[in-house]
Amino acid sequence: MATIRDVSKEAGVSIATVSRALSAPEKVSKVGLKKVEDAIAKLHYKPNMLSQKFRNKTANCIVVLVPDISNLFFTTVIRGIETVAQKKGFNVLLGDTRDSSTREKNFISLVETRQADGIIQLRPYTSDSALPMESVIAVNASGCENTPYPTVRIDNVTAAKDVTKYLLSLGHTRVGVISGLHDNPHSVDRMKGYKQALDEANIPFDAALISEGDFTMWSGLNSTEHFMRMSDMPTAILCMNDEMAIGAIKGFRRKGLKLPEDMSITGFDDLEISRYCEPSLTTVSQPAEKVGEKSAELLFKLIEGVVPSQTEYILPVEFVIRESTTGPRKQ
Amino acid sequence: MATIRDVSKEAGVSIATVSRALSAPEKVSKVGLKKVEDAIAKLHYKPNMLSQKFRNKTANCIVVLVPDISNLFFTTVIRGIETVAQKKGFNVLLGDTRDSSTREKNFISLVETRQADGIIQLRPYTSDSALPMESVIAVNASGCENTPYPTVRIDNVTAAKDVTKYLLSLGHTRVGVISGLHDNPHSVDRMKGYKQALDEANIPFDAALISEGDFTMWSGLNSTEHFMRMSDMPTAILCMNDEMAIGAIKGFRRKGLKLPEDMSITGFDDLEISRYCEPSLTTVSQPAEKVGEKSAELLFKLIEGVVPSQTEYILPVEFVIRESTTGPRKQ
DNA sequence: CTGTTAGCGCGTTCAT
DNA sequence: ATGAACGCGCTAACAG
Which residues of A touch B94 (CB under 8 A)? Predict the structure, then answer.
């Protein structure tokens, strides 16, 4: 492993000249430059970035905290982050937390120990999330209401309210919900929107219409059991993400229901797959990649010490109507 | 930012003692340890890992080169890699190459500049992939036949052959293929298996039955146009991955075909979603997470300088029969 | 068990 | 335009 010293000897110049040739070539004479370049080529010299980082006290690296790397929504956000990081010359460290706070803490300590310069957290804030804001620069992507640090998010409440209103407008009066875990902030916000829509339509809230899932396809499928057992089944189900909606579709079909005639289903996220399922999914399209880009831009501003004009960005969503929703059957 | 020197002053001991207290506490007296611990707590000291890495000449970091981070198959492999890396105390840098060789080269140089200790490449080897093996420690996950460096893979040829044989055994005689790009090594290997099965059954190869896709759902859907225009359509289609199979299902359904009665479809990979589509997908289940784990274990051996007993691991696949295949309609 | 010393590879003064 | 010298924070000898 050739070092800068080896190059300087080979080129017959000082270390400082080699260093300058690399970082500020305009400050080096033509001949000097040539000698250095030749020596570098001959020795196959590559600067030791570990040393540079140490010297410059910057890791040029950010950590992305993701609860589940095999979740399509998250990976799309990550792609947006990657795009911006790339432009800035930063690397992205993968922090696959798997909902373990121990693992999360370990990744956070990467910043505290200078192995990374900042964090983007891809899960809604909860009070136990314990990001030590005083020692760590962080941005929350896909946040919720009341996130106490910089965040890029959508308006979950309004989005869920709009979906519910749409279902009501089709003539549904009993609208079921397959929610995420009840204490998940996304669940909380979306449930709030659902209730608001019911309220405005003077439809009483019925707890029996809520089935708690955990954002997985399996839990969506599983929830259909609950609804099928009801004597007065809902005619439409609002699912709090696309995965659960896909699971629900599978579940209802297995029971012999015709979709969407017997049951309207809506999702949330608009994964690419949702266009291809049968029936294709009516859902809320989140600008996942944009969320990633915006979060990264915000984080880099913070890292550079710029005080951003806003610390909360609410990105617009788009409600996409496809085949999985229709009016209720006439009794 | 407190340094080790600050701690040593605060504790009234030498720098070396602090260092030892951290890395080899058994070599420090109880009182010394206590003093150091108190000082650390008081100063909120966190060791500068950038410095440690520099000193130890190891980044404790590996790069995962992935063509597309929003591909479910890849992310599952990554999860396996992450698990093992975590155990080893290594971090995972995300190298989202997006099939750009420029980007790929940049990530490779992370190793050459000591920012990472090794690479796992999640795409089949091609001669242009240009991994400089002499200067970079690397493992290829999801490789193909004839990969010239350590690799963990499945037997694509046999797997595709088995799928084809299964379709033939159901009575299909015209079996179509939706392939990946024709020069993609996965496509090549799987096509080889397809042809072998035809050969053994004495069925002549018909180029008209091959439609070239690019492993995306969209290309799968698009390929159905080709088959629908044929006067003698195939009765079964082997898709070279699940995404294209899902796209194909959508396409055929739109044309009014009944699945699987009018057309049997098979996939490859066994994504989680494939269990939930309609009809659920008959496919080849790859041990994606295992592939990731095995690759990482192999890479760490290489990093540690251990000469592994094998440099090629072929992991078993499982053929999963679900609803998307049946015998051809009687004429 | 402890402290002193000498670098790791690089960038950056400050002279020349 | 160039070089000598210092130090970033830490670990690993060595000597005591």
Answer: 64, 78, 82, 91-94
**Is residue A69 very low, low, confident or very high in pLDDT (cuts 50, 70, 90)?**
very high
The bases of strand C with some atom under 7 A from any protein CB are 1-13
- Decide if A114 and B50 are in contact by the 8 Å CB cutoff: yes
Q: Which of B94, B239, B291 is the best substitution to test chain A (most A C-beta atoms within 10 A)?
A: B94
Which of A109, A113, A250 minimises the CB distance to B48? A113
CB A90 within 8 A of CB A300: yes
Contact criterion met (CB below 8 Å) for B179 and B211: yes
Beta-strand ranges (E) seen in chain B are 61-66, 91-96, 118-121, 138-141, 151-154, 175-179, 210-212, 236-239, 264-266, 283-285, 312-315, 318-320
Q: Is the Cβ pair B59, A50 closer than 8 Å? A: yes
**Residue A54 β-bridge partners:** none
DSSP conformation letters of B88-117: HT-EEEEEE-TT-HHHHHHHHHHHHTTS-S
Strand partners, B269: B285
Give the Cβ contact number of residue B12 at 10 Å: 11
Distance of CA B177 to the CA centre of its chain: 23
Task: Please state the pTM of the whole predicted model.
Answer: 0.94
Tell me: the pLDDT tens digits for B76-106? 999 999 999 999 999 999 999 998 989 999 9
Contact A260, A298 (CB under 8 A): no
Q: How far is the CA of A327 from the C1' of C14 (A)?
A: 81
> Cβ A69–B75 below 8 Å, yes or no?
yes
Look up residue B267 and give its two tokens. Answer: 């996939």
Q: Which residues of A253-290 are buried (b: 16+ CB within 10 A; e: fewer)?
A: beeebebbebbbbbbbbbbebbbbbbbbbbbbbbbbbb
